[in-house]
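Is this the right way to post structure tokens for a design question? Let me know if I should format differently. Anyway, here goes:
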């Protein structure tokens, strides 16, 4: 499990306010301290990850939760940019999207997503999935160490 002596930094890239709110609520029940940062479109996500613009000085996330259908730059483009960036490419990326299309699943893994999850429509199930993501990536798996 990951114990880095500080809260886990997560970046949620999501344009749907209801999903952002539900994710925040679900993560409040998390067993380990976490900080949820939010980017609302693809360009914001890359600014955040690169610590640019209004996100200057932002902490590099330990885990990214990435929607696919996003304004300005879609999730696949964001994922490709993360994997093409030497300092960002090791960050685990969980695709969390309404799409269950084979093409999106295949393309995401081809771009080296760490896992692909189709959001349940049911609110309680959605929150349960967010809790499972936190449980797995933070408590079961080891996240990449930082320098
Ligand atoms: Mg969306």
């Amino acid at each position: 499990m990951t114990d880095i002596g500080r809260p886990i930094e997560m970046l949620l890239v999501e344009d749907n306010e209801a999903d952002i709110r539900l994710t925040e609520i679900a993560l409040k029940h998390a067993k380990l301290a976490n900080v949820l940062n939010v980017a609302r479109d693809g360009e914001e996500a890359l600014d955040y990850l690169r610590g640019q613009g209004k996100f200057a000085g932002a902490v590099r996330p330990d885990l990214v939760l990435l929607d696919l259908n996003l304004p300005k730059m879609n999730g696949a483009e964001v994922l490709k940019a993360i994997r093409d960036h030497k300092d960002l490419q090791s960050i685990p990326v969980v695709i969390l999207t309404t799409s269950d299309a084979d093409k999106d699943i295949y393309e995401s893994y081809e771009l080296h997503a760490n896992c692909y999850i189709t959001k349940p429509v049911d609110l309680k199930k959605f929150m349960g999935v967010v809790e499972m993501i936190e449980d797995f990536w933070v408590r079961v798996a080891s996240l990449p160490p930082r320098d």
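Format looks fine. Someone answered above. Worth noting: The CA atoms of residues 68 and 75 lie 4 Å apart. The radius of gyration is 14 Å.
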